[in-house]
Amino acid sequence: MIDYKELWQRVLVEIELTVSSGNFTTWFKDTRIVKEDSGLVVLSVPNAFVKEWLLTKYHNTILRSLRNIDSSIHAVEYVINKEESKRRDDRLGRDSFNNKELPLPEVEVNKDDNLNPRYTFETFVIGPFNELAHAAAQAIIKKPGITYNPLFIYGSTGHGKTHLIQAIGNHIKTVNPSKKVYYMTSEQFGQDCMNALQHQKMNVFKEKYRKYDVLIVDDIQFFSDKQKFQEELFHLFNTLYDNNRQIIFS
Asked: Using CB atoms within 10 A of its CB, is residue 1 exposed (0-12), middle (13-18) or buried (19+)?
């Protein structure tokens, strides 16, 4: 059998031809084969959310591509790369300490959608560290729910992630006021979920978020060790994605 790296690289080349560039980057970046034993391939993924999504949406595609290369492969398992997850959390922690962002001024926030109207494309500063994310954002506002769906923006604190994802929401809302757009931090989502669980109102909680055409969730790393919140977000994600609603994470 060919070595793991070459095998997975050939699989990625095949998969890249069948999915959008946005989805390919979002779900297949930082994945690799770590083991193969008697036809079972073990695939390392960066976090639980990617694991769940690959298993639900791309498992058959992955297995088929593997079997196209090696017919002896009959199964795939997914494991979370804890070292990569820890490095990312440590990096985010250092960035947050060194580049602490000020909270959005409450007076500026629209209470209906949580968007700060000052965060627009016109006021966004483009640099070499965010020009690719800006280009993806421009593609989204032309075809929400179709191009780069979901969009996952990640990087160091202070590089304009919050500004950019809110600019997308503000632009879509301006161009098409009938679109229901909502921005929140993952901590807000978690608090809503916790309150719903405590008061046995999960159906109300689910309906609240399923109505949006564009859902923007900031600071997704908050869910890294919170299994229940990950599960609820994943179910919501599935519903919105299947209905071509735009989903944006940072």
From this structure: exposed
User: Which SS3 state, helix, strand or coil, does residue 39 take?
Assistant: coil
pLDDT for 34-55, tens place per residue?
999 989 999 999 887 788 888 8
Cα angle 92-110-234, degrees, rounded to a multiple of 5: 50
Count CA atoms closer than 13 A to 226's CA, side-chain side. Answer: 16
CA distance 35 to 79: 10
Domains and CATH numbers, the chain: 4-85 (3.30.300.180), 121-249 (3.40.50.300)
Cβ–Cβ under 8 Å, residues 114 and 183: yes
Q: Provide the 3-class DSSP secondary structure of residue 107.
A: helix
For residues 238 and 209, the answer to whether their CB atoms sit within 8 Å is no
pLDDT band at 100 (very low <50, low <70, confident <90, very high): very low
Query: Edge-to-edge, what's the strand order for the sheet holding 40-45?
Result: 32-37, 40-45, 75-80
pTM over 0.70: no
In angstroms, the Cα distances linking 143 to 10, 112, 194, 198 are: 31, 23, 34, 38
Q: Residue 214: pLDDT above 70? A: yes
Question: Is-contact 250 152, C-beta < 8 A?
Answer: yes
More confident residue, 73 or 83: 73
